[in-house]
Specification:
The complex is a heterodimer of chains A (136) and B (110). By secondary structure, chain A is of the alpha/beta class. Chain A is 21% helix and 24% strand. Chain B has a two-stranded antiparallel ribbon. With 110 residues, chain B is mainly alpha-helical. The chains are: A alpha/beta (136), B mainly alpha (110). Chains A and B meet through helix 1 of A and helix 3 of B.
Chain lengths: 136, 110
């Protein structure tokens, strides 16, 4: 087991419905997380809508997959970066997003926040640092 | 191939997973397990019910690793390992238990 663990960044830029990108990205993340890789997610542009609370897809006849984001913590996905400017431009705040957490087994399953707001400049650095960027 | 449960017919896909998760009833698990020559105990039902609750909350079937960890937390550390789960479900906890629970095949399960 001498393989180097790579840092995978999944970059989400599109609204949750209307295209298949958001759901496909989430599926790939869940599959990828089953292997020992260092996974981070980034949400920019309309991608920030993927994490909003209270989604209702009844009118468009699609499955509402937003509850699945809450499972990411179970899959050891603990780093979810959301770009502040993208939220601002859409009149959204952190409160409009789901409260995503992961449980720290070493601290008696204490819940810790997964979402971290970052600036556009910080997001650029995060992308730069990633070994592999998957863009959806 | 469709399966018969208490006189009702349930559609399944080519791998034996229920086509409509909402159609599920406990009898489905009973019939499926009989076909596998497996007798369901309370321990089996703990896992099946847990999987259904998990799907209800997150809209996905958990990966084995996730299931293993969750079972350890919920039912005791001694049960949170794949040996325990494979002991209950020899064909694999995700594949077999999810099928009994009426869930789709877990994401990433090949």
């Amino acid at each position: 087991m001498s393989e180097t663990i790579k840092n995978f960044l999944y970059l989400n830029r599109k609204a949750p419905y209307g295209t298949i990108y958001a759901w496909e990205s989430l599926e790939v993340v869940l599959i990828g997380a089953a292997f020992d890789q260092d996974v981070s997610l980034a949400f920019v542009d309309d991608g920030v809508y993927q994490l909003t609370k209270g989604q209702d897809t009844a009118g468009i006849g699609m499955k509402n997959f937003s509850p699945t984001y809450a499972a990411l913590g179970d899959y050891e996905v603990k780093k979810i970066f959301v770009e502040q400017e993208s939220l601002d431009e859409r009149g959204l705040t952190l409160d409009d997003l789901q409260h995503l957490v992961w449980e720290d087994e070493d601290e008696d399953y204490a819940e810790k926040d997964s979402i971290k707001l970052v600036s556009r400049a910080e997001m650029a650095a995060i992308m730069d640092d990633a070994d592999v960027v998957f863009s959806f | 191939m469709p399966i018969e449960v208490n006189g009702k017919t349930f559609e399944t896909d080519e791998e034996g997973y229920l086509s409509d998760i909402n159609a599920w009833e406990p009898g489905v698990a009973e019939v499926m397990s009989k076909e596998d020559d497996l007798e369901l105990t309370d321990e089996h039902w703990d896992i099946i019910n847990y999987l259904r609750d998990y799907y209800e909350e997150y809209q996905i079937a958990p990966a084995v690793r996730v299931l293993t960890k969750a079972v350890g937390k919920k039912f005791g550390k001694d049960k949170g390992n794949s040996k325990y789960l494979y002991g209950l479900f020899p064909y694999g906890p995700a594949k077999q238990a999810c099928r009994y629970a009426g869930l789709p095949k877990p994401t990433g399960c090949v």
